[in-house]
Amino acid sequence: MTSKSYFKIAFILGLIFVCTNAQEKVFNVHSYGAKADGRTDNSKAFLNGWRDVCKWNGKATLLIPLGEYVVNGAVFKGPCNGWDKTFEMRGVIKAPIDPKVFCNEYWILFKYIDGLKIKGHGTFDGQGACAWGKHQCATLPYTVGFYFMNNFIVHDIHSINSKGVHMNIFSCSYGYFRHIKISAPDESPNTDGIRIGNSNNIRIVDSNIGTGDDCIAMVAGSQSINITRVTCGPGHGISIGSLGKLTKNDVVKDIHIKNCTFINTQNGVRLKTWALSMNGMATNIAFEDIIMIKSSNPIIIDQQYCPSGNCKKQGSLVQVKDVTYKNIRGSSSSKVAVILKCSASRPCKGIIFKDIDLVYNGPATSSYCEHAIGKAIGIQLPPSCLI
């Protein structure tokens, strides 16, 4: 090959390289007037930056550098030009403390965006202490919402002291959460770590969640959810439900929770339905290779859930079936380590216990069952009460 040919090839490759990189763009929020002083409301700067990221015809990143940025509220909307958009937060984004500003359903919301990546080792600080037990809001806002999203990734992000739910996932498909750290005091009310509803194919892996409520909650419409290597505590454990309260035919199915650890939680793995409920179903659920460390209720199905206390005599109409508990071991902080309070109207069916080994610091642990049909295989401590 002649030197002239080499030159032509190098020139063409150079053009390809330049054109490819010309499609990549970083939009720094400082360019839009954002101030990392911990006081200025940067909502407008963030949204203006996102507008340009979303419009950019190619790979684009909204960059939040190190520092503390107050944002009173923001909705980052799509659809965008192309899929390759990144929200890179290296700093701390702080929520407002004025109830006139924060009494909304949400604080930060991402919606109608396909292929979004959120990363950067940054922190969402909900500053919830100003609201817990003191607010006059109808409901407290969640920290971050994901609505109508597809094929998105959230990794290496922290959320602390949410006023309400930390991360709320609604009507999404194919979401991947990795290396997420969520924390709030164990006495903080209704601070679920991650809540999933009406969504499918959501994965949560290699994360630490400790809050005042459920570490992870899967409500109506949750399907094909995989939770792996999550450490939960403090909090109320990992919960499925509450089902059957507001809508007919609530369904949660194809849930797999594996290699998780629960430390000093109020519950371990919990499934709950309203006692006074509409028809629904929870099915094809597996809890596998779980470690409990002083969990109050390591294994619990509660189909008599009724916080108000006025419906305990009503039978749940939600069918619970095909639920497997395999290789669950560790310690219970209460004597009754397994509670299966199923519905007389819709008894639990297809419950499988395999190799359960839960000890109690005192007299031997025990089980309690109502209307629970299934089988027990291998080690059973406490002794199984399935029929």
Automatic annotation (TrEMBL):
<keyword id="KW-0378">Hydrolase</keyword>
<feature type="signal peptide">
    <location>
        <begin position="1"/>
        <end position="22"/>
    </location>
</feature>
<keyword id="KW-0732">Signal</keyword>
<dbReference type="Pfam" id="PF00295">
    <property type="entry name" value="Glyco_hydro_28"/>
</dbReference>
<keyword id="KW-0964">Secreted</keyword>
<comment type="similarity">
    <text>Belongs to the glycosyl hydrolase 28 family.</text>
</comment>
<protein>
    <submittedName>
        <fullName>Exopolygalacturonase-like</fullName>
    </submittedName>
</protein>
<dbReference type="InterPro" id="IPR012334">
    <property type="entry name" value="Pectin_lyas_fold"/>
</dbReference>
<keyword id="KW-0961">Cell wall biogenesis/degradation</keyword>
<feature type="active site">
    <location>
        <position position="236"/>
    </location>
</feature>
<keyword id="KW-0326">Glycosidase</keyword>
<keyword id="KW-0134">Cell wall</keyword>
<dbReference type="InterPro" id="IPR000743">
    <property type="entry name" value="Glyco_hydro_28"/>
</dbReference>
<dbReference type="InterPro" id="IPR006626">
    <property type="entry name" value="PbH1"/>
</dbReference>
<dbReference type="InterPro" id="IPR011050">
    <property type="entry name" value="Pectin_lyase_fold/virulence"/>
</dbReference>
